[in-house]
Automatic annotation (TrEMBL):
Gene3D superfamilies: Sulfite Reductase Hemoprotein, domain 1, Sulfite Reductase Hemoprotein,Domain 2. GO terms for molecular function: 4 iron, 4 sulfur cluster binding; metal ion binding; oxidoreductase activity. Keywords: 4Fe-4S, Heme, Iron, Iron-sulfur, Metal-binding, Oxidoreductase. Pfam families: NIR_SIR_ferr. Residues 64-111 form the Nitrite/Sulfite reductase ferredoxin-like domain. This is Precorrin-3B synthase. The keyword Iron applies. It comes from Ancylobacter novellus (strain ATCC 8093 / DSM 506 / JCM 20403 / CCM 1077 / IAM 12100 / NBRC 12443 / NCIMB 10456) (Starkeya novella). SUPFAM superfamilies: Nitrite and sulphite reductase 4Fe-4S domain-like, Nitrite/Sulfite reductase N-terminal domain-like.
Length: 433
């Protein structure tokens, strides 16, 4: 996942899956009021407390060189507990930072030459501009929106988000966004408001309309989100106000799958590899960075869907690198069961955990017959905030089993951890009967 922002902005916005924990430690990080407000998410200068220490999230402005990726892995080990994550939105997270290590992170990331966006982010696909199936290159539009919205930042919600999707294979339809832009009819863009299709406009009007929509949100102050605006006005009124041409409903797109080999418009390939449970140990990440360097990769880009894209390879080299990545424990097959499972750090990494989430996840995924599974060490649900078919949650009394819910939902059953597999088997048999 890439993000486009103007270089001169002063704030950091993140809009990813919530990662649990409450307090943040911004006090000595910056005195900029705006930055403090938008630092409500776990940005580099404002890491967030979680059960395994402080967590910092970063979304590099530019793709990473293999040396930068290796440097980030080293920092994860030196300043944190060595666990690096790529989130569902394609953002990097370093976990388990100590109170001594966290304040050094921003400077250390700077020293790697990694530029972290400081402005209003407009998110684009990790393959934006390289994907031959894109209907348009979303980056110029995203940059214009980002620049146009810069002055609105102090009045916008910390998690206000804009996604600009050129309509390629790695589309961003699964991401929640206040405003979405995707390919419409010829030379048109489809505007989505709180993920609801609102209407089409010519591509060249996109930046002005999106900035005007953001301004309407900003007028309502920093708590306002597009879903509130829709409830207040109704979609028809917004359609009329912004001259969005109604469109017939479109069929949902098949999910984007970053894992695999992607042909690029410059004749090279990108190898997409997944992180099991969205996490990797620093040592494996460093070994991957070294392998990417040796393979002559142009860059590495975190991608939405808990993946990394290694870009600029020949097909032969990409296949060899895929084997290497698989040996390091990365997911190289989109059909891998772990792609259907969300699991947080769990025991022993997180002090709040009541479960060994990763071991449990593998056992339950094997029983789940392709259902989406979320295994959460406690009710915070750091790994995935949305409901899934089957959730297992660690509780003081044992393991809670939730059907079509989240770790915070009322469990259908609570069982001892030792009896979990049997209880899940029984429950699913009943469902399938
Ligand atoms: S146990 Fe899991 S969900 Fe709970 S705080 Fe720790 S990482 Fe988050």
């Amino acid at each position: 996942m890439s993000v486009v922002t103007p270089a001169t902005d002063v704030t950091t916005a993140t809009n990813d899956v919530a990662t649990g924990g409450a307090g943040n430690v911004t006090e000595n990080a910056t005195s900029d009021v705006t930055r403090l407000r938008r630092g409500a998410c776990p940005s580099l200068p404002a890491p967030m407390q979680t059960g395994d220490g402080l967590l910092a999230r970063l979304q590099p402005l530019q793709p990473l060189t293999s040396e930068q990726l290796s440097g980030l892995a080293r920092l994860a080990r030196e300043l944190g507990n060595g666990i690096v994550e790529v989130t569902a939105r394609g953002k990097l997270q370093l976990r388990g930072l100590t109170t001594a290590g966290a304040p050094r992170l921003s400077e250390a990331v700077d020293a790697l030459g990694t530029v972290v966006p400081q402005g209003f982010p407009a998110e684009v696909s990790a393959l934006a501009g390289l994907d031959p199936t894109e209907r348009f290159d979303p980056r110029p539009l995203a940059r214009a929106i980002s620049e146009g919205a810069a002055d609105l930042i102090p009045s916008l919600a910390p998690k206000a988000s804009v996604v600009v999707d050129g309509g390629g294979a790695l589309h961003l339809a699964a991401l929640k966004a206040d405003i979405g832009v995707t390919a419409g009819g010829e030379d048109n863009a489809l505007i989505l408001l709180a993920n609801r299709p609102a209407g089409e406009i010519p591509l060249d009007r996109v930046p002005a309309i999106v900035v005007a929509l953001l301004a309407k949100l900003a007028e309502r102050g920093p708590a306002a989100r597009m879903a509130n605006l829709l409830m207040e006005h109704g979609i028809e009124a917004l359609r009329a106000e912004f001259a969005l041409a109604p469109i017939p409903p479109a069929a949902p797109r098949p999910p984007a799958e970053p894992v695999g080999l992607h042909a690029l418009n410059d004749g090279t390939f990108a190898l997409g590899i997944g992180l099991a449970f969205g996490q990797v140990e620093a040592e494996a990440l460093q070994a991957l960075a070294e392998a990417a360097r040796a393979a002559g990769a142009r860059h590495v880009e975190p991608a939405s869907g808990r993946a990394l894209l290694i870009v600029g390879l020949s097909q032969e080299v990409a296949n060899a690198l895929k084997n290497k990545a698989s040996g390091l424990g990365f997911i190289t097959d989109p059909a891998d069961l772990r792609r259907r499972v969300y699991a947080c750090a769990g025991q022993p990494a997180c002090a709040s955990a009541r479960l060994d989430t990763h071991a449990t996840a593998m056992r339950i995924a094997a029983l789940a017959k392709g259902r989406e599974v979320h295994v959460s060490g406690c009710i915070k649900g750091c790994a995935h905030p949305a409901p899934v078919a089957l959730t297992i949650v660690g509780l003081d009394e044992g393991a809670g089993i939730v059907v079509e819910g989240t770790p915070r939902s009322a469990p259908a059953r609570v069982v001892p951890v030792s009896g979990l597999a049997q209880a899940v088997r029984e429950l699913l048999e009943k469902e399938d009967a």
